[in-house]
Design goal:
Length: about 425
């Protein structure tokens, strides 16, 4: 988005105010005799299956630095972006360290809410980070976050249900539709649960048709091209043929529960759901959980690059300890523990050489998938690109609007959001 002098001045003022006012912890956090002290408030956006592990890992920092208290706060993902902006913009209640979705970094940095990390303890051994993971941490030539985990989407499938139906793991959405008919005939169950409430899950269909949201090099809006229309047609076709089911709310939990309980044979999901998927009554145990690449469309098989970064609030009163905390939470040791406990993918290349990580079944699948994943636009408006998709997904999938009108509406919304794009 084009910004004039007034907007630039506002961002600078916000950054200066944040740095002056700081967070809500009044415990200075200055080094005493070379030792860290004070409090580090950490907002964690991990899900229910992950947060106990992350809290224990975060508290492990206190053993290394006895003078520091870590205040762990679990913040629901759906609330975290707005909650951080409200706190940082109002200079009250913002955390010292925030676990940010990869698309949030440029936005927060553009607003002046994040501290640059060059020359700080937080940016430890940067050459060890996967290049595609590091890409989401930068804005206007500076680094504002450190990669914590990287991910993409895959096809989770119930091995027994597909075997009983006599079908192979689908490689395309056309094959998903065919497999679903056999699953229904054999078991009476549905083939695929389709996430209709989260725009992130629209991307494999868009990429599969050869499309993308934007062409950032040419500054062009591409989501409303023919490929964007075709993506909606594929999704709607899966629902109309009864190959898939969906709903308009709480898609994450509904999808996971449907898969765990054996009500659907397949879901498109990511590494963050592995632990949850293994707890189901019908799909329990690694022996019955299969993971394959996301099915392809008419052009290719492709899924979006996702993940999580760690960033320091520019107004923190304890930046020294915050930088060290980020260094600790993104260290090779902690990343190894995260993979061992949660099967999440490290962002440090060196961790993939560790035996326990190299032998992890889910890492063996998801790492090659991540290497081939599509990077999203790392621009301040990146997260805002999802809301127009969400609105039109609901209308298209419910039949209230056509795939073409839905794609056109998204393009119109992008035109208003991105003033210098055509």
């Amino acid at each position: 988005m084009r910004r004039g002098i007034a907007a630039t001045a506002l961002v600078a003022a916000l950054a200066m105010t944040a740095a002056a006012c700081g967070g809500d912890d009044g415990d200075g956090g200055k080094k005493s005799g070379g030792k860290l002290s004070g409090t580090v408030t950490f907002w964690d956006t991990s899900n229910d299956a992950e947060k106990d592990t992350y809290e224990k890992l975060a508290k492990g920092f206190e053993k290394l630095h006895p003078g520091v208290e870590v205040k762990y706060v679990s913040v629901p993902f759906g609330e975290a972006n707005a909650k951080f902006k409200n706190a940082a913009g109002g200079n009250s209640g913002a955390p010292d360290v925030m676990r940010t979705e990869v698309a949030w970094v440029a936005d927060f940095a553009n607003l002046g809410y994040l501290a640059p990390l060059e020359g700080t303890a937080a940016l430890d051994k940067p050459d060890d980070f996967l290049p595609q993971a590091a890409a989401s941490t930068k804005f206007k030539g500076k680094t504002y976050a450190v990669p914590q985990t990287i991910d993409t989407l895959g096809l989770f499938y119930n091995k027994k249900m597909l075997k009983d139906a006599g079908v192979a793991v689908p490689k395309t959405f056309d094959e998903v539709e065919s497999a679903a008919k056999k699953v229904k005939s054999k078991s009476g169950k549905t083939g695929l649960y389709l996430r209709g409430d989260d725009p992130y899950f629209y991307l494999p269909y868009l990429y599969g048709e050869g499309g993308d949201l934007l062409d950032t090099k040419k500054k062009e809006i591409t989501v409303d091209d023919a490929e964007g229309v075709a993506a909606f047609e594929v999704m709607k076709g899966l629902l109309d043929s009864k190959a898939a089911v969906t709903d308009a709310s709480d898609g994450y939990n509904n999808q996971l529960n449907a898969f765990k309980d054996g009500d659907v044979a397949m879901v498109i999901d990511g590494p963050w759901s592995i632990e949850g998927a293994l707890q189901g009554k019908r799909a329990a145990g690694k022996a019955n959980l299969g993971v394959a690449p996301v099915p392809g469309g008419s052009a290719r098989q492709a899924s979006p690059q996702g993940g999580w970064n760690l960033a320091a609030y520019a107004g923190s009163k304890n930046l020294d300890a915050s930088y060290e905390f980020i260094k600790y939470m993104s260290s090779a040791k902690v990343q190894q523990q995260t993979t061992e406990k949660l099967s999440l993918l490290p962002t440090r290349a060196s961790v993939y050489d560790v035996k326990s990580v190299k032998g992890n079944q889910m890492v063996q699948f998801f790492k090659p998938a991540v290497d081939k994943s599509v990077q999203r636009p790392w621009i301040p408006e990146a997260n805002s690109l999802f809301e127009p998709i969400r609105l039109q997904m609901g209308k298209v999938l419910s039949g209230r609007t056509s795939p073409k009108d839905g794609a056109d509406s998204i393009g119109d919304a992008y035109g208003k959001l991105l003033k210098d794009y055509k």
